[in-house]
Write a structure and sequence with these properties.
Elements lengths: L6 H7 L13 H12 L10 E6 L20 E7 L5 H18 L3 E2 L8 H7 L7 E9 L7 H9 L8 H4 E3 L1 E5 L2 H4 L3 H8 L10 E6 L2 E7 L6 H24 L4 E4 L12 E9 L1
Parallel strand pairs: 5-7
Antiparallel strand pairs: 1-2, 2-4, 3-4, 5-6, 7-8, 8-10, 9-10
Helix pairs in contact: 1-3, 3-9, 8-9
Bound molecules: flavin mononucleotide.
Length: 279
């Protein structure tokens, strides 16, 4: 389903925020947010849930830690999903849709998959043991100035930069770059995918256009941990949110499907995730 926001404009506006005003969410913003959360969906048929807590209303609130990365925030969102093939991809997709809605509302967020005390948030959000709990995000109003920690993090991860188009988008086979011209009406959805946020700004997505399909892949370094591999799937879901929502905004028809035999040689440490079939 297309989000009821200007998608491209909002994707360009979104930026991770780690330094917040201590002000709580206004009643109006909280009510709208709750309504939006209840209406979120994903195109993978997965059961994704968004949790919300206020630090001062949960019993272990004072223990909810972010390793000093997040300053000032009092409201936090969390996302959970099932241990299924597309669970994490769907969580990435659905939570990023919420991030974009929040951005459109003038609220700030930052995906956190590593720098938070997962056990404490799991307790506070009352998350069942059989669920995957990949990430949280603070939500609130950004301060005018970033903390020093935040500025340093952005510099280290080159957060304002993205990989060039030719390193991530291919035609027919890996290594054969897809030009913007050959992407035709899909130039915009791919460009918006390219701007997506990812853990440590690694941008693990690769896309190969072949005939009437765009095939999506995840790539990682050979020494990556199992936990990091999981997060790459979330990153892919985020990329698919940007791609899909921009396609919908541009009136492009198609559907996500896992194809049995894509007939593409896949490089090492790269995995096929799903395809977008045009039409
Ligand atoms: C799945 C995911 C996990 C992330 N985990 C963290 C984290 O644990 N701590 C943190 O400070 N930032 C985290 N980030 C934020 C990224 O560092 C940030 O998105 C990236 O540097 C690009 O910057 P931008 O979002 O401002 O465009 C995460 C982002 C994503 C998408």
């Amino acid at each position: 389903m297309k989000l009821n926001i200007p998608v491209e404009e909002t994707i360009k506006k979104r930026v991770s925020t780690r330094t917040y005003k201590s002000k709580k969410l206004s009643v109006h913003d909280k009510e709208k947010l709750m309504k939006e959360i209840s209406q979120l969906t994903n195109p993978f048929g997965e059961n994704v849930r968004v949790h919300i807590i206020e630090k001062d209303t949960v019993s272990n609130g004072e223990k909810l830690g972010t390793y000093g990365v997040i300053k000032g925030a009092s409201t936090f969102l969390g996302v959970t999903t099932d241990k299924t093939e597309f669970g994490l991809v769907a969580a990435g997709y659905q939570f990023e849709n919420l991030v974009l809605i929040a951005t459109d509302m003038g609220l700030s967020t930052v995906w956190l998959a590593a720098t938070f005390s997962r056990d404490q948030f799991e307790k506070a959000m009352d998350i069942q043991k059989n669920k995957l709990f990949p990430a949280i995000s603070p939500i609130g109003y950004a301060t005018d100035k970033r903390s020093i920690t935040e500025s340093l993090m952005r510099k280290t991860m080159k957060s304002d930069k993205r990989k060039p188009w030719e390193e991530i988008f291919f035609q027919e086979s890996f290594g054969n770059a897809l030009s913007r011209k050959d992407a035709n009406e899909y130039t915009k959805p791919l460009e918006m995918l390219r701007l997506a946020p990812s853990a440590t700004n690694a941008q693990p997505w690769r896309v190969v256009k072949k005939q009437e399909s765009y095939h999506f892949f995840e790539t990682h370094k050979s020494n990556v941990s199992d936990e990091d591999k999981m997060i790459k799937k979330v990153d892919l879901g985020i990329a698919l949110s940007h791609f899909h929502q921009t396609a919908l905004e541009n009136g492009l028809a198609g559907k996500f499907e896992k194809q049995e035999d894509i007939k593409i040689d896949i490089p090492v440490n790269t995995n096929y995730i799903i395809s977008w079939k045009i039409g």
